[in-house]
Amino acid sequence: PRPGLSPDAIAWIAKLNPDTVLYVSCNPSTLARDLKIFLQSPYHLEAIEPFDLFPHTFHMETLALLRRNP
């Protein structure tokens, strides 16, 4: 969602302890905010890729791949 994830949602995801989290965002500001929180948990950013799904507009989607630290 454009407003990003709530801190409670991030905590819930971290509590589930998945090996991999794929985070799709259309808002660079909330993506940065939420990644900062994720990176304080047992996850690291393995890859990040922007996608231009709406050519000729300023809208971009970004996919972030987070992996749980060993």
Task: Describe this protein with a few key phrases.
globular; 70 residues; 3 strands; 3-stranded antiparallel beta sheet; alpha+beta
Set out the fold topology:
Blueprint: H1 7-16, E1 20-25, H2 28-38, E2 43-51, E3 61-68
Antiparallel strand pairs: 1-3, 2-3
The coarse overall form would be globular
Count of distinct structural domains: 1
- State the major sheet: 3 strands, antiparallel
- Beta percentage is 25-35%
Q: Give the mean pLDDT.
A: 93
Order of strands, main sheet, comes to 1-3-2
Question: What order do the helices and strands follow?
Answer: HEHEE
Low-confidence stretches: none
Q: How far apart lie the N and C ends?
A: 29 Å
What is the tally of beta strands?
3
Word description of this protein:
The protein is of the alpha+beta class. It has one domain (7-68). It contains two helices and three strands. The protein has a three-stranded antiparallel sheet with strand order 1-3-2, with helices on one face. The model has no long low-confidence stretch (mean pLDDT 93). It is globular. The N and C termini lie far apart (29 Å). The longest helix has 11 residues, at 28-38.
In short:
The protein has helices at residues 7-16, 28-38, and strands at residues 20-25, 43-51, 61-68. With 70 residues, it is α+β, with helices and mostly antiparallel strands.
